[in-house]
Design goal:
272 residues, mainly alpha, 2 strands
Length: 272
């Protein structure tokens, strides 16, 4: 980076001003994320919704799941709350980006870090890391609490195989949602618009495309971001027609990567 100074009427070029490295940008974004109350309120909501609703649903349905009339697997319920917790992941991913655009502080960020792609990468990494850890811990707490009621009915699930995969899969899915939302946030630069569009894609349109007839409708349903990515976060899906867990998550990852690439292009080209 070159700085220009005026000394005694002469223009002096300085070339000793360093651009912040990736480690410095990561520290900066981590401080921004962890020093505002909205982050902690959002993470608390993630835990309460993810773990609390799982325990509540397992307690309420344990008797029915143990009966011969049950048409659902207990595995469908041990991470049930994570379906609702994804809302908070969307909120966090949006706020990390759009708050700075709303206040105008993004201009300061880009002035300090002229390599704008580095800012996008740093915000993405801190969101992914935080949501993966919180999502995995939340899923484990929900499993322990919910499985207690299933065990009392003799239908408890061991923490192995698909159940174990669903624990860290819940963390991966929340991290993926956060990353997806970061990309949309950089594209829209508006908090309400970002949250509304991502929630619509994840929760509403994913169900509405079931109404599209024929094989095209079936594949459209499978490829919607929320449907493709969510299978990894549950041992047994409520919808058996979705893609396999790792296949679906790979599709979701590809969709997220395309959005991130588009966001990177737009961030470099547009004014802040």
């Amino acid at each position: 980076m070159t700085a220009t100074l005026m000394e005694s009427g002469a223009v002096v070029e300085r070339t000793d001003v360093r651009r912040p490295g990736m480690a410095a940008v990561l520290r900066s974004e981590w401080l921004k994320l962890t020093t505002v109350r909205s982050t902690w309120w959002t993470l608390a909501a993630t835990f309460v919704l993810g773990a609390g609703l799982t325990v509540l649903l397992c307690w309420a349905n344990a008797d029915w799941l143990a009966s011969p009339d049950a048409d659902e697997s207990p595995g469908s319920f041990v991470t049930w709350g994570m379906m609702i917790a994804q809302i908070t992941a969307v909120v966090l991913g949006a706020l990390v980006v759009t708050t700075e655009y709303g206040t105008g502080m993004i201009r300061t960020t880009f002035a300090a870090v002229p390599a704008r792609g580095r800012v996008l990468a740093a915000k993405s990494l801190v969101v992914v890391a935080l949501l993966f850890v919180v999502g995995t811990v939340t899923a484990l707490v929900g499993y322990v609490g919910g499985n207690y009621f299933l065990d009392r009915e003799g239908i408890g699930l061991a923490l192995e195989g698909d159940v174990l995969r669903a624990m860290y899969g819940s963390g991966l899915y929340l991290a993926g949602i956060g990353l997806f939302t970061v990309a949309v946030g950089f594209l829209l630069r508006h908090t309400a618009g970002t949250i509304s569009i991502v929630l619509a894609l994840m929760l509403i349109l994913g169900n509405m495309v079931n109404l599209v007839p024929g094989e095209f409708g079936e594949w459209l349903t499978k490829l919607m971001p929320g449907n493709a990515g969510s299978a990894i976060s549950t041992p047994v899906s409520f919808n058996p027609n979705l893609l396999e867990p790792w296949t679906g998550f790979a599709v979701f990852g590809l969709e997220t990567a395309v959005l991130l690439l588009l966001a990177w292009v737009m961030v470099r080209r547009r004014d802040a």
